[in-house]
């Protein structure tokens, strides 16, 4: 689910940097969080970066979402992985450094690791430090012979790869789930180009891509009957309360998700139930009744549209796997040779 309105918010962030002096005295991560929150909430159309969903509580809620009957992506992708894991592992090859973006609970990763015993190292990358290290420890117990090198980072920005003790012959990234859909198309192109640069010549990317389908299926997936997705969406406001001395009343905001057919994407919003002013640190943000905070997009792709996007970022699609109902796909991309 995770990277909405990043371009506009980043451009606007310069105006909010001066406000960082009012932020709680803490780490640079907290200062960045405050700056991005204030940047997004002072835009004409309010936004919050969906990467901030993923504190410890948010990560737990997302794991719950993945188990919901309505939320098809996780179980569908897992079924694809189970059917084709050996073929995927063969594409990675021996002595591969496998870098997972947004590792989360690594449920699908275990399917892949079970079929790839000859990896040089596994590098999970996640923004939630507690969740990341908890997952890494679990994987170390399951795969004692595999070097696991967790990296706590915002993977949308450049980060350094750790060098494994065992020399790696190549680097392949793994980006499961439908997270690439959380990027607007131009952002997705830039992000994929970053991955291509990180993996380098001979590298690859194994990626989950959600496919276009019946809007009713999509609506149910993002508006589950138990309200777990709503709690996940609202949790970002609770995180602001906990980490930035925010004063959000969660009962004064409502979860709203819908499929925008024209743009081919699910949109998630938080809707203000009334006119209100909310304090954040020493600042404040005013909301009108019915005004929304746009928290996430999830673009859905046709096979042809994603192949075109991958090519524009320096990849070429080498393998394509899907389920019988064509709800979801897992694709293996290779870094395209540099043209002379």
Sum this structure up briefly.
With 340 residues, the chain is of the alpha/beta class.
Contiguous runs where pLDDT drops below 50 for at least 5 residues: 1-25
Number of helices: 10
Structural class: alpha/beta
Give a short account of the largest sheet: 7 strands, mixed
- Basic shape: globular
- Please state how the strands of the largest beta sheet are arranged side by side: 3-2-1-4-5-12-11
Termini distance? 38 Å
Helix content: 25-40%
Q: What is the mean pLDDT?
A: 90
Instruction: Give Rg in angstroms.
Output: 20 Å
The total of beta strands comes to: 12
Percentage of β-strand residues:
15-25%
> From N to C, what is the helix and strand string?
HHHHEHEHEEHEHHEEEEEHEE
How would you describe this protein?
With 340 residues, the chain is α/β, with parallel strands linked by helices. 38% of the residues lie in helices and 23% in strands. The strands form 3 sheets. The protein has a 7-stranded mixed beta sheet with strand order 3-2-1-4-5-12-11, sandwiched between helices. Helix 7 links the parallel strand 4 (170-175) and strand 5. Helix 1 packs across helix 2 and helix 4 runs parallel beside helix 5 (107-114). It is globular and about 60 Å long. The two termini are 38 Å apart.
């Amino acid at each position: 689910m995770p990277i909405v309105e990043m371009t506009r918010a980043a451009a606007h962030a310069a105006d909010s940097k001066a406000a960082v002096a009012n932020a709680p005295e803490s780490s640079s991560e907290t200062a960045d969080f405050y700056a991005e929150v204030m940047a997004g909430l002072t835009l004409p159309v309010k936004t919050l970066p969906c990467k901030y969903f993923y504190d410890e509580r948010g990560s737990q809620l997302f794991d719950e979402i993945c188990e919901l009957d309505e939320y098809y992506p996780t179980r569908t992708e897992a079924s694809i992985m189970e059917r084709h894991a050996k073929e995927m592992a063969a594409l990675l090859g021996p002595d591969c450094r496998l870098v997972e973006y947004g590792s989360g609970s690594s449920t699908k990763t275990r399917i892949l690791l079970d079929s790839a015993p000859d990896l040089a190292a596994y590098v999970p990358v996640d923004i939630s430090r507690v969740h990341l290290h908890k997952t890494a420890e679990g994987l170390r117990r399951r795969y004692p012979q595999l070097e696991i090198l967790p990296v706590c980072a915002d993977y949308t920005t450049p980060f350094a790869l750790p060098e494994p003790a065992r020399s790696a012959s190549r680097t392949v990234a793994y980006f499961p789930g439908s997270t690439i859909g959380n990027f607007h198309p131009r952002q997705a192109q830039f992000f994929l180009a970053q991955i291509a640069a990180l993996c380098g010549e001979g590298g690859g990317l194994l990626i989950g891509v959600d496919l276009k389908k019946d809007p009713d299926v999509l609506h149910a997936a993002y508006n589950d009957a138990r309200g777990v997705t709503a709690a996940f969406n609202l949790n970002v406001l609770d995180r602001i309360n906990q980490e930035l001395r925010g004063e959000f009343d969660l009962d004064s905001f409502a979860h709203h998700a819908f499929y925008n057919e024209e743009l081919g994407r699910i949109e998630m919003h938080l809707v203000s139930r009334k006119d209100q002013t909310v304090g954040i640190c020493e600042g404040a943000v005013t909301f009108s009744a019915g005004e929304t905070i746009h928290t996430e997009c999830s673009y859905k792709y046709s096979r042809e549209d994603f192949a075109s996007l991958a090519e524009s970022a320096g990849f070429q699609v080498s393998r394509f796997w899907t389920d019988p109902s064509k709800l979801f796909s897992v694709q293996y991309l290779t870094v395209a040779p540099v043209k002379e």
